[in-house]
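Most newcomers find our protein records easier to grasp once they have seen one. A record pairs a protein's sequence with a compact description of its fold. An example says more than a description, so a record of this kind follows:
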Amino acid sequence: MPKAYEEIADDIRRTIREGLRKPGDRLPSEAALAKHYGRSVPTVQNALRLLSEEGLIDKLHGRGNFVRRPRTLAVRDNGRHQWEKNRAREPEATRAETGATEHDTGLCLDDLVFYAKYREFAAPDELADAFGVPVGTTLLERTYRTRCAAETAPFNLVTSYLVRDMIAANPDLLDETKEPWPGGTQHQLHTVGIEVDRVEERFSARPPTPEEARALELPAGTSVIILRKTSYDIDGRVVDVSVVTLPGDRTELLFTTSLERW
């Protein structure tokens, strides 16, 4: 038999799913809900906590509980890398018109807020092995966060690694203030004579760490998708390793495979 707070949650959930309560609507106060359902305020609070954990409502401190607005969906397809390569040799004005996030979300540049942070550090065993360089080789770590201006959580958490000496011929590539870079990483590499030949992507899923859950504003129980992307140049050399943490509640992965005809 359902508990009292589960019955209340079921009824509020129904009103949301049937459209009787719209995204952004404020729910009645806890006291008003308690009176409506003939239950105690703590029982109502348990119901609201359950709905919050499901991602159906948001509790804003001092303001109340609101029906959660759907977050912008990002569709990541396997054609994005060729799309980026096609743009790498275009004029800057063309490259500046749109980027990978706009490609994935359908948003415009003015809809986005972008953040980048660079740091140099010595390559640990795993990354040294991935790049085929000695342990301790200087790497450039680049951290990216991009979000919709109307939202507070980024679309994903991106950390990209480059071998510093491989790109040092262009000092702008070591300068985070040059971000966002029109044309992305493939154009950055193009400026130092590197052409990306293929991109390998490996996906896995797991529960988020507390830090990831906070940064991505994940509802309880939502998994993250971990993407490890390795880019190779035309000589088979690894030129970029990126780790992308994708929120499971707003990411769709789309793969289209063309098959050879008989």
User: Anything to note?
Assistant: The chain has a mean pLDDT of 94.
